[in-house]
Amino acid sequence: MIKELLLQFVVALFPAVVYQLWHDSDKHSNRGKLYICAASGVSMLVCLLLCYDFHGFDIDFGIVPYLTGSLYGGVPGIVVLSGIYVLTRAPMLQSAGETIAFVSFLGLFMLALFKLYPLFNAANAKNKLKISTSIISAAVGFNLLASTLYLDYTSVNYTPQIIAVSFLSIISCLAGSYFSVFIIESLRRNRLLEDEIRLVSANYSNQVEALQQFINETAFAVLLVDHNGRLTHINELGMKLFALMPNDGSIQYFIGWPYETIFQPPNSAICVHALSKALKGERTVQEPIIGEKYIYLKTAFPLYAAAEKDDITGAALIVQDITEITRLRNEVGRMERLSLVGQMAASITHEIRNPMAVIRGFVQLIRERSPADQQQYFRIVMEELDRTNSIINDFLSLAQNRALTMELGSLNELILQMAPLLEADANMRGQSVVLTLQEQLPPMMMNEKEIKQLLLNIARNGMEAMGDAGILHIETRSKPGIVELLIRDEGIGIPQEKIKQLFDPFFTTKQRGTGLGLSLCLSIAERHSGQIDVESSPGAGTTFIVAFNISRHKGEAGRAYYGTSGMQEQLRMEGGA
């Protein structure tokens, strides 16, 4: 008998077991109610087959799956399971008393289910256990009362065996109902926790991805490490500026690396020191890192937990490349100096140029009336006056805001026009000129007078740098959207520390130079959408590379270009005076 009761108890828990199987395999579908109702129906039938006849009473735990399936299956479950209960129990009724008791029990039980199902569905796990226990207790109490009346009616004595079996049946029904609801609610609570964890994990992943996208798009190099000093985030600019090693081009490759091992010289010690201080709670703000071709601004600071300000969770290193900003600042300074030059040129044009013309005329008149042995003195005076006038002309050329007419032309043809003059200058110095002109060189918009002046200035500088011998190489070449003019000498070269100052007004490496020639050349190049680069090393000569951006002028037949020196109508009027 005990074996049959125990087997029925296990079968009564079958709906909870099926719910667990559905939860583990098909938990993302909405068929949970269908599964639990079907399992409850099967469990009711199996319990009926395993029921035990004890002194005319059928010991059957089918009420447990009936209750479980009805509470979790909703109204359809109540109707279906009640139908199964009626169809399986009705044929077993043998008297009018049993029929009355069955109908009364079923009516009260279904009424309780329909009444309490909405409350059960909205309740928490603790209250669901209370509701299910109350219903099963009432059902068991009803059956106990009916059994007691039957025993009294049939005058059957209450033996210890009857009392023990009754007590065991009551406890089994109560325990089966309790454990069924407890197991199902535990699984549902676990499912909710899994869903919450999945949602939090998805939000975390989205936040991490958003952070990485923000870091990638920002104009700063960003590197983040955790409290153990292992890399957690870095952007593409950081890969470039920090020059991580070994660099296979993948950000994910470096995630998890100790920060001490990923930096390359020459800035490795600086970056490691900054992050070490940040992980100790020290903040470094905007410290410059100055290299040969770059200037970086470095900031490192600790990262704290949201709740605990003293709990350091990592550190951040942010580097801003201010090389271009510094270059622009220097360019602004150069333009300001050019503006000053223009103002000086405007003010001295009438004050010096006209009196000098008078002086030169009288010196020439006196020279014609002077003895032959004094002619060399007059020649020196006139040469110096001419040199002074040339300086004034350079001032005006650099500062005047003249309107330029650009026309489509060939740089090669312009160089060929200038070749005889350049060769004559070179021959007088014992030098030679070699032209290497690219065939099919794209045409460009230019002002021929200015480009000739640029070519002549740079070429004569190269000749002066070579002394009494050497070859001056003039070359043209093109790239997509670019036409380049290269002028290379075989002179003594220029020290690296002086190359940056070559285009500053008044800076010169020559004893009798004015320091305005290359400034004028740069101004001409910029008016033609170009730039000038210098490659030089002591003893190996110097190469000036003038690159013109012809893509900006594509399709133009001509245009007027106005400079930016600030000397407008005043210079044009006074310069022509």
UniProtKB/TrEMBL annotation:
Pfam families associated with the record: HATPase_c, HisKA
Domain of life: Bacteria
EC number: 2.7.13.3
UniProt keywords, alphabetically: ATP-binding, Kinase, Membrane, Nucleotide-binding, Phosphoprotein, Transferase, Transmembrane, Transmembrane helix, Two-component regulatory system
GO molecular function, a single term: phosphorelay sensor kinase activity
Reaction equations catalysed: ATP + protein L-histidine = ADP + protein N-phospho-L-histidine
Domain Histidine kinase positions: 347-552
Transmembrane segments: 6-22, 34-57, 63-87, 99-119, 131-151, 163-184
Top-level EC class as recorded in UniProt: transferase
Protein name: histidine kinase
Lineage of the species this protein comes from: Bacteria, Bacillati, Bacillota, Bacilli, Bacillales
